[in-house]
Specification:
By secondary structure, the protein is an all-alpha fold. α3 packs antiparallel against α4, α5 packs antiparallel against α6 and α9 packs antiparallel against α10.
Length: 259
């Protein structure tokens, strides 16, 4: 029998090779179709293609695409499960843990978010993005003190990290640390002129300090930047009322955004 295989070629081996070639071809087709569908926004088709492709081969890039597709389909838990498998395969890749943290944030799972950030920091302890994400996890867990510490580390590493300044300012305001919050608000207003988030933080700090005239000035600017900012109208109404402008306060309260 072995002589016959040697003379005429092993049919068993040829059959196995053909099977492997066919599976590899099917995998490539499904992966390509999935990527194409993902780019076209055909999310369900993309998920189906990537899932079938993974039945042929456990490919990390395909799992990455599948996690993106699940996020687009608003299924963060399934995306998280795919990213966990990527993390198991590449435990030294901080970007995967950062993505895990981001997805956990979407699920309001701040414990999982903090855990992912801790693992990322073990790999890259100086990452400003990880410190920022960790701060969000701390805020979600009610730990504003550590959130401020994390945001400060992010800013020390990246002095122009404007999102970190904004989140730190908002957190300090929530802690009634008004002078420190004002420093961040002033920095933002100076460096991103006309930004509604920066202006709103400044307005809220002035309001919290009891400087209602200054607060109204900045609420005016917020509304100028975004005429549909419901919170700005609501809070400006309170400031106007405190200043004795009852008519203006009533006008703000009656603003409707129905189209």
């Amino acid at each position: 029998m072995n002589i016959l295989k040697a003379l005429f070629g092993g049919k068993t081996e040829d059959s196995e090779e053909r099977k492997q070639d066919e599976e590899a071809k099917n995998f490539d087709i499904l992966k390509f179709d999935g990527v194409k569908a993902l780019h076209l926004g055909e999310v369900n088709h993309a998920i189906n293609c990537f899932t079938q492709a993974l039945n042929y081969k456990d490919d990390l890039e395909t799992r990455d695409y599948l996690s993106q597709a699940f996020l687009m389909a608003n299924e963060p838990l399934k995306a998280y499960e795919q990213l966990q498998k990527l993390a198991e395969a590449q435990p030294d890749n901080p970007k995967i843990f950062m993505r895990l943290a981001d997805v956990a944030y979407r699920m309001d799972d701040y414990g999982a978010m903090a855990d992912a950030c801790e693992k990322a920091l073990l790999i890259d302890e100086a990452s400003p993005t990880v410190h920022y994400l960790y701060a969000r996890a701390c805020i979600g867990q009610g730990d504003n003190v550590n959130a401020v510490a994390m945001l400060t580390k992010a800013i020390l590493t990246t002095p122009d990290y404007l999102d970190a300044y904004l989140l730190r300012g908002e957190t300090l305001l929530a802690m009634d640390s008004l002078e420190e919050a004002e420093e961040d608000a002033n920095f933002l207003v100076e460096h991103v002129a006309g930004n509604e988030d920066a202006l709103l933080l400044k307005a809220r700090v002035e309001k919290a300090k009891g400087y209602n005239a200054a607060a109204q000035e900045f609420y005016d600017k917020v509304i100028e930047a975004n005429p549909f900012h419901a919170d700005a109208f609501k809070e400006r109404a309170e400031v106007r009322e405190a200043l004795g402008d009852l008519q203006g306060a009533e006008e703000d309260r009656n603003v409707s955004f129905n189209t």
